[in-house]
Design a protein that fits this description.
Blueprint (H helix, E strand, L loop, with lengths): L11 E3 L6 E3 L3 E5 L3 H6 L9 E5 L4 E3 L2 E5 L6 E3 L1 E7 L15 E8 L2 E2 H10 L4 H4 L5 E3 L3 E2 H4 L6 E6 L2 E7 L7 H9 L9 E3 L7 E3 L4 E6 L5 E8 L2
Parallel strand pairs: 3-15, 5-11, 6-18
Antiparallel strand pairs: 1-2, 3-4, 7-10, 7-16, 8-9, 8-15, 9-12, 13-14, 13-17, 17-18
Keywords: Hydrolase, Metal-binding
GO molecular function: hydrolase activity
Pfam family, one: FAA_hydrolase
Length: about 230
């Protein structure tokens, strides 16, 4: 088979302790999944989880430098637990969800907050606020055989060494198994899918030169530097 131009490279994530890479198929994201974050965003805690996607090529493996994006003046971090799937399907039962997990990582759901506020006010889609270039820095995946099934653990984000987000993944409203089941009601989950599970309270704006350190207890950390504005 030939193509009219060379296809883009396969999006991937590194795997701790292995030379193998994890190919990324889709990036699912969950919004409004920590009670304190719901309150700081002025939303209703009784709402079901918000499910949206980022393109696979938004993934930035292992962090490094990312540009301050175009089309925003209010660029926010959101530190999250990321779940990587080795299998999937439709209508996965909550009890069966752990069998589909390959491993876990730390990620940042970078957000154009100014445009998100406008979209939410008008009931519009979130793509312009979430699905932009290099909006998903993600650290190496730790296989579940190494980490065990994660149900609790401290999640922390620092900006230039100052703690901004500090919570525990046990505080997620929708737990990982429930998230997998819920997404599979609407989409056929597949090997290579990753899920960003939502952020705790403490989100805020960053600018060029800021250094973000994101950690989830037991996983490889993630460091990202915000570079100059994208050309």
């Amino acid at each position: 088979m030939s193509y009219v131009f060379s296809p883009p490279p396969q999006a991937h994530l590194d795997v701790t302790g292995s030379p193998d890479r994890f190919p990324v198929r889709r990036v699912y994201c969950i919004g409004k999944n920590y009670l304190a974050h719901i309150h700081e965003m002025g939303s209703d805690e009784r709402d079901p989880p918000v499910i949206f996607q980022k393109p696979a090529d938004a993934v930035v493996p292992n962090g490094g430098e990312i540009p301050y994006p175009v089309f925003t003046t209010n660029y926010h971090y959101e530190c999250e637990l990321v779940v990587a799937l080795k299998s999937g399907g439709y209508n996965i039962a909550v009890a069966d969800a752990p069998s589909h997990i390959y491993g876990y990582a730390v990620g940042l759901d970078m957000t154009r907050r100014d445009h998100q506020a406008a979209a939410m006010a008008k009931g519009m889609p979130w793509e312009v606020t979430k699905a932009f270039d290099q909006s998903a820095p993600i650290g190496p995946i730790t296989p579940v055989e190494t980490s065990g099934v994660l149900e609790n653990g401290r999640i922390v984000l620092k900006v230039n060494g100052e703690v901004k987000q500090d919570a525990d993944i046990s505080l997620m409203i929708w737990k990982v198994n429930e998230i997998i089941a819920k997404i599979s009601e609407q989409h056929r989950l597949m090997p290579g899918d990753i899920i960003m599970t939502g952020t705790p309270a403490g989100v805020g704006a960053v600018t060029s030169g800021d250094v973000l350190d994101c950690e989830v207890e037991g996983l490889a950390p993630l460091r990202v530097t915000v570079g100059p504005p994208a050309a």
